Amino acid sequence: MASSSEIGLAAAINILTAFAFLVAFAILRIQPINDRVYFPKWYLKGLRNNPLQSGAFVQKFVNLDFRSYLRFLNWMPAALHMPEPELIDHAGLDSVVYLRIYLTGLKIFVPIACLAFTVMVPVNWTNRTLEQSKLTYSDIDKLSISNIPSGSNRFWTHLVMAYTFTFWTCYILKREYEIIAAMRLHFIASEQRRPDQFTVLVRNVPPDPDETVNELVEHFFLVNHPDHYLSHQVVYNANSLSKLVNEKKKKQNWLDYYQLKYNRSNRSKKPSMKTGYLGLWGKRVDAIDYYQSEIDKLSKEICKEREKITTSSKYIMPASFVSFKTRWGAAVCAQTEQSRNPTIWLTEWAPEPRDVYWDNLAIPFVSLTIRRLIIAVAFFFLTFFFMIPIAFVQSLANIDGIVKAAPFMKGVMKVDFVKSFIQGVLPGIALKIFLIFLPSILMMMSKFEGFTSISALERRSATRYYMFQFINVFLGSIITGTAFQQLNTFIHQSANTIPVTIGASIPMKATFFITYTMVDGWAGVAGEILRLKPLIFYHLKNFLLVKTEKDREEAMDPGSLSFNTGEPRIQLYFLLGLVYAVVTPILLPFIVVFFGLAYVVYRHQIINVYNQEYESAGAFWPDVHGRIITALIVSQLLLMGLLSTKEAAQSTPLLIVLPVLTIWFHRFCKGRFEPAFVRYPLQEAMMKDTLERAREPCLNVKDYLEKAYVHPVFNNDNQWDGSDNGTSDDEWPKEPTLVATKRSSRTNTPAQSQRSESRRTLLDVTDERSCP
């Protein structure tokens, strides 16, 4: 357990580390050679010029204006200067809503911290319960609820504070939900035309013996959506073709490099290379001729593969992107049942084209349930076995308790500085290291499950990351940490008193979470703005691999917000803050510093660095709201259990009301605000369609949507026309049209009703309909 001196040492180390990162960033960002690393977003927008192209030779690499070094912190007010509406236009609504998570944390915890230190700290401090107990504790633990004797009337203070903190948190959550729902509706109403506003993804198209998937989709929507259906694009399994195209791009890049090298050199001899691994060995050949021949081979393979995909029905998946003439028609289709059989003709809003994860569109729909079952089992075992490194981390955090149970380790802990460093800093670093590879593993699991959009992949990965952190980092640290911390007490007491010992020890685990908050929340956030890894990789690529301007642009690697890792990380601090606000309020200032620093840092990164891969108009906010509500309920249940071990029989029953009220509040918000995030109002769709027709009466929607959802490996090929011809804008039918079909009559039908006769008439074969 970390004492006050060890916490002080950890705070000093992490504050100095964070300050060093910020100073290093302030110096590196003003060097011309690093301009593309720290301002890539402006380069991608074409609003910033390369400073290396002008000025003296030295000034191209080093900033010689010493006055700029004196203003090394001017990036902070600059990050806060851009107003929110302008930030939405600049970076999108997703980025602004993500920032509001940090702002919500500040709104919740700043007043709670002030009130807790005014009321709770004096109530907890003015007791001597821990001094008279046999528990292992530190001076900081005297500020927790563990320092109050069992059966004391002071627990009424904690009860009142629990109600106060709950009501304040719910008030802030309701205000934020209301604001963000309004922002989302306004953004959707005012944003420019996008293909996904007119398009629906249809999955599990039923097989038909007489018609192909392409024909079946066209007939189904011409019959059931005759006034609004426009066109469709069937989904191909083009994963193998995609690999060939990517390989060709790499070869083409090397060919461009050697051609530029040859053109810039004054030699008549062409550049050569070795054909072995990484060019280290093998036969030496003419580099330009070699890569030209490789590209020619790949081009032939690509043509064969493309022909095979487009001519063979086995490469056509039972799915399609269906486009409509209006947003209203797409909204009706996406939000209604298409068939009496609820397992076929499944419709959902199509993700925007850059959000589509094309590899998973090739996964058969029937296998998705099996895949998700496999991943659920795998995630269970991953979570279970990760308890081992968590227990190891907690063994580092509670050396005092282990030394009491194992005296032979006393020699290692004779040096106070070493002991302070191990207990105050090392546990947080060790836990951070163990969590490095977890996001990549969880993202691989989400991809295996078969989600068809990057946003869906990130949300599922974020949900699992949050569950993992709740079970392992929070509950695991408390359980294993308490076991190590009170190891000596457990050994020498009866089993009946163990729950009381655990109840008193849980509040004292705040010292471990303080060290973790400083390592991950302070130094970690400051390290994010330094961008040390992208900085090193950019210069390595620029020196070794960059061959063209396109390579230099790709080497910038602006990155994105990474919702799958960032949001669960924030939610851990919401959980810690709400759980320990009543029982150990000393943790709250560290949480507040994290939210404040992170808000400024990520606002700067969003303005200057990050380039979002997609735009969901803040669709993830219901997940954020639900996880904060979960943290609130967990804090109430833990407080209820804690007070039950403290013999607070009179105040504990009153806490039962809090989870009930919180769940009711969540259901209210879910019914009042969540529809704006999961459904598109028909009123808004009709309004936007009407305004668009008035402003652009000659708009050809078919041309606009023609290649929006063609697989990227086909999209740049002039010979490929993957979309169905559909119906041109000037030939939209005014009357019900007859739909051509190859479906043969069913001879096993015993009798033909009037309804079936009229339906066959509608589906009779006709060649009168022409498509441009």
Automatic annotation (TrEMBL):
Protein's cellular compartments: Membrane
GO CC aspect terms: plasma membrane
Protein name per the record: CSC1-like protein At3g21620
Residue stretches making up the CSC1/OSCA1-like N-terminal transmembrane domain: 9-176
Bias type Polar residues, positions: 746-755
Organism expressing this protein natively: Deinandra increscens subsp. villosa
InterPro entries, alphabetized: Csc1-like, CSC1/OSCA1-like_7TM, CSC1/OSCA1-like_cyt, CSC1/OSCA1-like_N
Domain CSC1/OSCA1-like 7TM region: 371-643
UniProt-listed Pfam families: PHM7_cyt (PF14703), RSN1_7TM (PF02714), RSN1_TM (PF13967)
Biased composition (Basic and acidic residues): 756-772
Sequence segments annotated as region (Disordered): 719-772
Membrane topology: Multi-pass membrane protein
Residue ranges crossing the lipid bilayer per the database entry: 6-28, 108-125, 373-397, 417-444, 465-484, 572-602
Residue span, CSC1/OSCA1-like cytosolic domain: 197-360
Main location: membrane
PANTHER family: PROBABLE MEMBRANE PROTEIN DUF221-RELATED, RE44586P
Keyword entries, A-Z: Calcium, Ion channel, Ion transport, Membrane, Transmembrane, Transmembrane helix, Transport
